[in-house]
Amino acid sequence: MQAKKRYLTLLSAGTCLALLLYLGGVQLRAARAPRRAAPPGSSRHGPGAERPWPRFPDALRPFAPGPEGGGARVSPRQRRDASAGLYRGRRCRMESCFDFALCQKNGFKVYVYPQQKGEKIAESYQNVLAAIEGSRFYTSDPSQACLFVLSLDTLDRDQLSPQYVHNLRSKVQSLHLWNNGRNHLIFNLYSGTWPDYTEDVGFDIGQAMLAKASISTENFRPNFDVSIPLFSKDHPRTGGEKGFLRFNTIPPLRKYMLVFKGKRYLTGIGSDTRNALYHVHNGEDVVLLTTCKHGKDWQKHKDSRCDRDNAEYEKYDYREMLHNATFCLVPRGRRLGSFRFLEALQAACVPVMLSNGWELPFSEVIDWKQAAVIGDERLLLQIPSTIRSIHQDKILALRQQTQFLWEAYFSSVEKIVLTTLEIIQDRIFKHISRNSLIWNKHPGGLFVLPQYSSYLGDFPYYYANLGLKPLPTFTAVIHAVTPLVSQSQPVLKLLVAVAKSQYCAQIIVLWNCDKPLPAKHRWPATSVPVIVIEGESKVMSSRFLPYDNIVTDAVLSLDEDTVLSTTEVDFAFTVWQSFPERIVGYPARSHFWDNTKERWGYTSKWTNDYSMVLTGAAIYHKYYHYLYTHYLPASLKNMVDQLANCEDILMNFLVSAVTKLPPIKVTQKKQYKETMMGQTSRASRWADPDHFAQRQSCMNTFASWFGYMPLIHSQMRLDPVLFKDQVSILRKKYRDIERL
């Protein structure tokens, strides 16, 4: 009996082995056999054709982003080949497709092709080109250029769009500087069209870099392309609105936990995620609204939910939802990017990204985990529980970071363009490129110029992060414009008073007078070095040049007729050490909006608030000399020099734009209200009505260039401890400030 069982077992095993060997041999012969081309009109699976192994359904297919409207599945390789016209330079990197030699001689300069006759440019692309031409990178000489930008409008490459430029392929190829796209940058917001919305821009970009919205990680060429946000035609060219987070609410929760309001696509690419949102919507703290009511033929395709969705859609105001939500859902649309992304950032509504495969804007430098929640379209049902598990401290940090990123990089077309250019510049000059801390922390990469220094401790914004303090001494820079004719002149008294400060390291006298330099014996003897520099151009902006002689972090900027005591200088510097990123000083001024004239006004009246501290007696970080010289456009500095006026206002504009903070006024002697800017040649300028009118005009010109009013009002004045207290004067450290 046992022998019979063993026999049957061996017989079964042998039969199975023979069958496996036979089937394996058939498949092996099929694999080795050369494939014959099927005759025209024949079917791959007709009679006698070899049938492939059956395809089993993919359990994750309903959740995975795939081709529109079903049909045959497309492999990643096939999708890449479909856009070969766009990405023939798929393997391009900076090292292989960019000529660094063009940038070595003149630095990072950008040339914009002149506009061709008869070529129409949409307003959005005009704003892009205007941002480049108004930047410090622009050059009108192509021989000096490191990077080239087309004047042909490439933003909208949807063939159904009225902004679509026809025959772009031949127009680009005819450009004599094209050179197969080498060292060229192409801006694009929309590519492809119905029904597949591919990322093909419709012409061969060669070796050009792409600054593209809605670009996929699959087609994105790391460290070569730049992913930019999708922005509307109404996005401001400069300035832009501030973020909506006015104060930090603790706890940071709002009326709604998660919101979305937008179109629902019934068929085609991008429809899966939005069609599933109703599963998560609860009508209370999770409000996800969609409408089918868009497009010409929406009623032909509407489903059983459309009428109900449309009715509920109309009940809610989008702006009210946006401003009262903690998280905002940002699902993909027809393309990977969405306008909802920038709207959420501005509203301090933490974006919850649902767009698998989207290369997020400026992902090369921005750490989006600090400002957004990166979701997965396949795990939509887990989104509510995920965001509810985020701690309130983390929510507050995310909201604050949205505001920083919005104002630093996204609030205007100009900032988007400049961020793109700065990223490319960092790639070219890697040895001085910005690190992640600079890009992701206030004030951001646009205001921290790596050409100044590669060490974070040389900037006034990172002392706390590095555990450092600014150097405990300052350099006084006295701006002299009148000849030295008497030993009793205010400039000499000022020099002696400043030299007696325990914090003074050296004094620089900037001689911008038309008369020759005085002899050395005319200057008083001091315990600190006195360096006299004769201004070459003798213009107002020269007082803010980044002189190598300034070796301290702090600069005490002084007009020649300023009246200050040593005690006041010491106290002001002590205050500045606690606020090294701001202007700290004495003479304060303010701005206001004149409704009758519909323009900004300037006032010198002594009131309870101020927005400027004049640089005639102020302390600030020396980095602002470099920023004033290299960041501001030549047009503003030329205006200041021609008027011999407004340089102090411009410096206040710059510092407030960088810090988003007002300056700090410190206590000054009461009689200075009358004697500050005393009876000298400069006093006559302050009393001149034309001088005051010029300053009014400067305010509006500066505000126009910045795109908004960066000055911020403050009512804070810092006084010494025990100031004006009814105690013995001997108990007060800065006692001289109270003496009349």
Automatic annotation (TrEMBL):
Pathway: Protein modification; protein glycosylation. Transmembrane segments: none annotated. It is a single-pass type II membrane protein. It holds the Pfam family Glyco_transf_64. Its main location: endoplasmic reticulum. Residues 34-81 are annotated as: Disordered. Residues 105-389 form the Exostosin GT47 domain. One of its GO terms (cellular component) is synapse. InterPro entries: Exostosin, Exostosin_GT47, GT64_dom, Nucleotide-diphossugar_trans. One of its GO terms (molecular function) is protein heterodimerization activity. Residues 474-723 form the Glycosyl transferase domain. Its EC number is 2.4.1.225. It is found in: Endoplasmic reticulum membrane. Keywords: Disulfide bond, Endoplasmic reticulum, Glycoprotein, Glycosyltransferase, Manganese, Membrane, Metal-binding, Signal-anchor, Transferase, Transmembrane, Transmembrane helix. It is an enzyme of class 2 (transferase). One of its GO terms (biological process) is hematopoietic stem cell homeostasis. Belongs to the glycosyltransferase 47 family. PANTHER family: ACETYLGLUCOSAMINYLTRANSFERASE, EXOSTOSIN GLYCOSYLTRANSFERASE 1. This is N-acetylglucosaminyl-proteoglycan 4-beta-glucuronosyltransferase. It comes from Gallus gallus (Chicken).
